[in-house]
Specification:
By secondary structure, this protein is mainly α. It has six helices and no strands. The protein has one domain: Nucleotidyltransferases  domain 2 (Four Helix Bundle (Hemerythrin (Met), subunit A), Up-down Bundle), CATH 1.20.120.330. It is globular.
Length: 137
């Protein structure tokens, strides 16, 4: 079991990793690697969502589990909009298809419209994490 301080350190590391992954994604997009962009977009959101679950002491052992716990504890409660919940699920499906479906072609048209919503998603979840100055130290 984690101490409160250990939990804060891990949450902060996940938030940092989320933003590093998002910055990495922007470089990938600039170079036109659409499959990699789909993958990294999803992971930027996944790390941030995992940080939120960790902060709240909610455990999930799979990607689908993270999506399910996020939906149960944050979408259904209205803490996060249903639109952002659907967006996160859509990113997961795009990443899965891009990584494992030989028939799926990921293009610039699939990726570029998602950019503003990724940024909204990350900021929304970070704000929930940082409620009451949680990350301030």
């Amino acid at each position: 079991m984690l101490t409160g301080d250990e939990r804060k350190v891990l949450v902060a590391n996940k938030v940092r990793r989320s933003y590093e992954t998002w910055m990495e994604t922007k470089g990938i997009i600039a170079n036109g690697y659409w499959y990699a962009a789909a993958n990294r977009m999803y992971y930027a959101c996944y790390y941030m969502t995992s940080a939120l679950l960790l902060k709240k002491g909610i455990t999930a052992h799979t990607h689908s589990g993270v999506i399910g716990m996020f939906g149960m504890h944050f979408i259904k409660t209205g803490d996060v909009s249903a639109e952002l919940g659907k967006f996160y699920s859509k990113l997961f499906e795009l990443r899965q298809s891009g990584d494992y479906d030989d028939w799926k072609i990921v293009t610039e048209e699939d990726i570029k419209p998602l950019i503003p919503t990724v940024e909204t998603f990350l900021k929304t979840i970070e704000n929930l994490i940082n409620a009451e100055g949680y990350l301030d130290n």
